[in-house]
Specification:
By secondary structure, the protein is mostly beta strands. The chain has 5 helices and 48 strands. The strands form 5 sheets. It has a 28-stranded antiparallel beta sheet that branches. β21 and β22 form a beta hairpin. The longest helix is centred in the N-terminal third of the chain and has 21 residues.
Length: about 800
Amino acid sequence: MKQKDLLKILIIKLLLISTLVSAQTINTITGKVVNSKNELLMGNAVALAVKDSSFIKGVSFFDEPFVLSDLNHDEVLIKLTSLKFKDTIFHVKYGANSKIDLGKIMIRSATVDLDEVRVVSKAPLFRNKSNGTVEVNVANTILATSTSVNEILSRSPNVIVAENGVSVFGKGEAIIYLNGVQITGERLAAISAAQIKKIEIISNPSSKYDAEGKAVINVITVANFEEGYKGSVNQYYTVSDFSSPSSNTNLNLNYKKNKLSLVGAYGLLLGETREVLHTSRERPKEIDNFKSKLETDWEREYKNFSNYTLGGQYDFNEKQYVSVEYSGYSNNLGGTTKSQNGITSNTTDGNFKSKIDNDVMTVNNSISANYNAKIDSLGTSFFAGMQYSLFDSETDDFINENNILNGQQSYRSLNNKINHKINVFSTQVDYTKAFNTKSKLDFGAKFSNVGNKSVSDFYVSENGDPFAPDDELSNDFKYEEIITAAYVNFSGEINEKTNYGAGLRSEYTKYDLNTIIQKEEDYVYLFPSAYLNMKVSDKVQLRASYSSRITRPRYQALNPSIIYQDAFTTIEGNPYLKPERTHSFEMSASVSKYNFKAGYNYTVNPISAVALEGRNPNSYVLQTVNLSTLNSYFASVSIPYSNDWWTSMNTVNVSYDKLASDNVVFSLKESKPLYYFYSSNQFDIKKVLKIQLLGWYLGDKNDGLYYRKNRSVITLGVEKNFLNQALKVKLMANDIFHKDKSAGNYEVGKTVVEFDRTFNTDYYRLILTYNFGKLKKVNYDNTSSGEAESDRAR
């Protein structure tokens, strides 16, 4: 017999032996922890080795069954833990099936009955995972009182939501993922807050994730594991002294029958909100003694803000499924924008008023499809997916100006018509090869194509004359972008206490910009990443990591089309913007319940916003520009605390940023440390009433160019259940002292710019949640697309 034939026979025998061995071990254990009323509860389930009680795998469960997968042991100890009862441990041995369903488990106080076990627990708001990720629970916490995902993020630890986007403290701007798949900001706006289960904050992403952004925030939605139907209705009513009331209604439905799962959601926002900005600009007497005092008041009306989702999943078997989802939103924005700008100088004495009647219709629709297959019990898997999104915005604003200049009054009317379309297509393939439970190889590829087109036409009427086109204010913008990416990532272990990972991502970018200038460019960047994780003892764990990231300019930031704010202030994009590159180093240590973290970021061509002098000495243009470098240092500590009636999670952070610019128009200042404190507390009052208190404080920021005044928020919530927990009533007071304001100053050339922006953040909200439906246990075992994708490589 030839050597080649012998080799084939040997390989076949090895595969048969491997299959036989893996088939005689426990792969998955599931169970439902319920109370005597058959209500699903919350807690933690941990699988331990029978020999030495060493940790194998653990999961948290929140109002749903727990699933411990990829165990690969012939027997294990299952440990159920909670803050309110003694730990419960029982023995599970391999039977005839590698998938074991324990059914219902009920724990009564400290007494255990394996057929019916009653568990009472509280979900902590967040926890620090061993890989450096911060996991934030949304369901059943004060975050669930939010009406949007952005509002949830603004209340999450170490997450800063500002007018220029979402960032992670000490890291910078973050990109958003939904169940492991990257989405746009428009797609994020289409998600109902009631669908959110938890959020993962990944401060140093690996090569699996897109290189865009300095951090990753993965939003994970609720999944239905049981057959039957389940639904909820959430009604929010918000009142504020600063703005008119608003109401938000959300309906969510889940249905599962055999191999078919369906999900649907609809949200409707009606009412108003408000925002006020005070800006002053001054130049010294020796130049022209210029002073500008500007107030802009946005009174936005939500005529009909709707978001919707309809999705389905079909399971071919317990290892393969295909899913399709259609989602989007339709927003009709009205209201007014009023501004008043008083300008004085050596030659000017004027008062300039304007009123914009807003009329904006925005529609965003997205369809996605994916296929997921689990190839073996070790974790080898394959994923293929695609997504197409169409963003369409129509603006028809009417602007009336009433100006007095040196005693002379004049009137001007403008009509701004904007048509803005964005098409996004992306497809990706990911493969994970697991060699054993400790080592795996991930690799994949992604292709995306973006088309962005905007036509902005201005029509002007002077002192009642007929409207005529204004070619100087009008502009067309077209942007095409193609990104092709590939990555490889390997993770393994040196010994039982030390594991590591290393990866490399390559992205080729080509874009074509056609506006007041024509610009075509392409570039290739490599993004390495690595980490080392060491378990010193049962209570001490150390981790070090490195990642390389890129932040490309937003499409609108490249668009030089004029967005009217007042007679002397416009917002304009900068087609000459460059992407910024960041190298990030991070070290962390977990000591018992505490988590310590420190890091350093070096950024080239950091992107920032500034007000620059316009076409005449009285005008200013709000624009995005590149600076030279940013050196950033940060450190943090997380401190949890709990007893029978109080659960508290706290973080203390400090950072130091140093911006530099080669542009002589910027005046450099002294950099100072920035402090950030966050605390979330839950109080259970005799198991009858739940009180939640959340607060954060962001200190004064001095990064060398900008000064930003401190901000803070105190939020208080009270929750009570009725009708056998089917009806949940919550009262919430947000930003009680109205300290969440954006204020500060900077210098551009000889001009000192001060700003003070007030948002509609101090409000009171009533939330009514009604849960309905009928679920029953089934033996069929499937993994939801959301949970699977959140764990996969990208």
